[in-house]
Structures are given as C-alpha cells and as structure tokens.
Design goal:
By secondary structure, this protein is α/β, with parallel strands linked by helices. The protein has ten helices and eight strands. The protein has a single domain, classed as 3-Layer(aba) Sandwich (Aminopeptidase). Pfam families: Peptidase_M28.
Length: 339
C-alpha cells in the first residue's frame, strides 16, 4: 500500500512540475533532432566567409561591414526566415547622427520567428556583427571569434528553429534574432534598439541571450575545454539562472564558469557587451563567453583557430535554452529588478 501511495505521489509531483515549472511542449517532441542541425561543418563554412579578408574586419559603417550585413540578410532569405520589418527589409537603419563623430551610418540586422500561442512575448538572441576593421599597418582584423563565432551561432540556431517549424513545431513565444552593429565602438547597435527604436516593446521582451565569443579556449581552461563562461544569468531572474543550469545538466554537463559574473570582477564584462542594454531595462540576460585569448582584437583572430566542435556544442546549448524559454507555460519572472 505504501508503495502505491508513493507511486501516486511521485506521478502527481511529476505532473505538477510538468504543468507549472517546465516546458510540456519540450517533452512531446524530440528536439535533439533540431539541435543536431547545428553542426561544426555548417558553422565552419559560414565563418570562413564571414571572417574572411573580403569583409575587411567589418568596422562599423565601412564597406566590409556592409558586406557582412548583406551576408546575414541572404542567410535569412535563403532559409525562409522573415524579417519583423516586412517586405524583405532586414535592416534597422541607424543614422550617422546617433554615433560619435567619425562613425558612419550603420544598421542592425533583424529576423523573426512568430510564436504560436504567445506571439507578443519575445525572446531576443543577440550577437554583434561588427569588428575593429583594418589596423594602421594595413592588417585586417578578421574577428573570427569576436564576434564571428556568435554571429554564425545565431544564424544556425535560427535555422534549427526553422527546421522545427517546418515539422509543425513552432515555439509558443516569438524569437527576435538581433545582429547588432557598433558594439566594438560603444554598444551602439544594442543601445539604439533598446533606447530609441525597440521593434518590440521592451516590456514584452522575456530575456536576451547574448553570444559574444564562443569559438575558442582561454588559457585557464586548456586542461578542461568543455566549459563556457556565463555572465548575468542570476542578476535579474533566479528562474532564468535555474533554467540555464537545468538545461546544461540535462543535455551537456559542461562546466559553467561564473568567474566573470562576480560583481567585483575587475574586467566588468557584464557591462561590456550588448546584453547590458537589455539588463539596464530589467530584461533578464545571459552573456555566453569563452574568455579572452592571445588573439583578442588582433589580426591573428582568424577562422582556422576556431574549435568548431566546441562551437557547435555551445550553440546547441543555447538553442536548448532558447527552446525551453520560448515553450514554458509561464514567462520567466524578474525577482531582482533594478531600482
């Protein structure tokens, strides 16, 4: 009798957890099918183009950066992923007047997947599309890791969601794929989006998952390469942090390193990438980062040095996390709002 009571209690608990705390949608289909579309081969093919000399280091407003945004736009067009702006217009134009003197007009690139049940609730996946351009000695800074790795990861995550939609498995909430410009010169693109022209109301934005450098290994982790730095996951939402941990434990068990999440971290990375412009508006964030290395902001940050299997695994982790956030029964809560 006690065994029967225990079994019924266990089943009841599992049902309650499924209904209230986790995504029942996730349990109905095999999402690994879509995660597996994010491959090292596809990432490598895209990054060898995106971080090539042809793109001239992608400095904001310069010809190479214009080539970069066209590359991103063509990817979304070719994969049937629309823009929220309509009419195949994927560019959120940012006028020259918004930038400090000497920076030319630029643009963010945006693509969109509309949710099936709660389309007005939007998850943002962001990465910066720019880099630092050509050095004074004429060398091109290709920015393969910074942030070519994040850019191609967002593209492949978008393609994975599109594969799910093609099978009739549209996420419950909407997703904005946001490629921001001007990060290297002062977080301009993300600030323009949050402070001037949010395409979707910030109050409807459930979280920002920001990807900035996830293709390399830093010196600290040479003996344990299966890692990723996470910054900001617990700053505004305990629930977001817990979801992130649970997804990793369920699918990957990689090491999450929170060194740079410390409020007293002298590097202040929490304030130095595009997620911060969302966080300052009380939107929960996670900043995914592999740490700095000897090629950071140098011409030697080239695509041949990227760890593509590791890049694919990290991108898959972010896909699973995005899937969970967009398919949970309830929107994640903010329990540590800024004053």
């Amino acid at each position: 009798m006690k065994k029967i009571v225990f079994l019924l209690s266990f089943l009841s608990l599992q049902y309650c957890n499924s209904q209230n705390n986790t995504s029942t949608f996730e349990k109905e289909i095999d999402i690994s099918k879509y995660a597996s579309t994010i491959t090292s081969e596809a990432l490598k093919e895209a990054l060898y183009i995106y971080a090539s000399d042809e793109f001239e280091g992608r400095r904001t407003g310069e010809p190479g950066q214009k080539k970069a945004v066209e590359f991103i736009k063509e990817f979304y067009l070719n994969n049937g992923i629309p823009s929220p702006l309509g009419n195949n217009d994927y560019f959120q134009e940012i006028p020259e007047s918004f930038f400090k003197s000497g920076i030319k007009a630029s643009e963010n690139v945006v693509a969109f997947i509309e949710g099936s049940e709660k389309p007005n609730e939007v998850l943002v996946l962001s990465a910066h599309l720019d880099h630092i351009g050509i050095s004074s000695d004429g060398q091109i800074n290709n920015g393969a890791d910074d942030d070519g790795s994040g850019t191609v990861a967002v593209l492949e995550i978008a393609k994975a969601f599109k594969a799910a939609i093609n099978d009739g498995n549209r996420p419950k909430r909407s997703i904005l794929f946001l490629h921001v410009t001007g990060e290297e010169l002062g977080l301009y693109g993300s600030r323009y989006y949050t402070d001037v022209d949010p395409i979707f109301p910030l109050i409807n934005t459930i979280a920002d998952l920001n990807i900035d450098m996830i293709g390399r290994i830093d010196p600290k982790h040479l003996d344990n390469t299966d890692y990723l730095y996470l910054i900001g996951s617990d700053k505004l939402s305990t629930e977001l942090h817990n979801i992130s941990e649970e997804v990793n434990e369920r699918y990957f068990q990689m090491e999450f390193d929170y060194t740079y999440n410390d409020d007293n971290d002298p590097n202040r990375f929490y304030y130095r990438s595009d997620h911060y412009n969302f966080a300052k508006n009380n939107i929960p964030v996670i900043f995914y980062f592999n740490g700095t290395h000897a090629d950071y902001h140098r011409p030697s940050d080239t695509p041949d040095k990227i760890e593509y299997d590791l890049l694919a695994k990290r991108a898959q982790l972010i896909f699973y996390t995005a899937w969970e956030l967009t398919n949970r029964n309830k929107r994640i809560t903010v329990d540590k709002a800024n004053n």
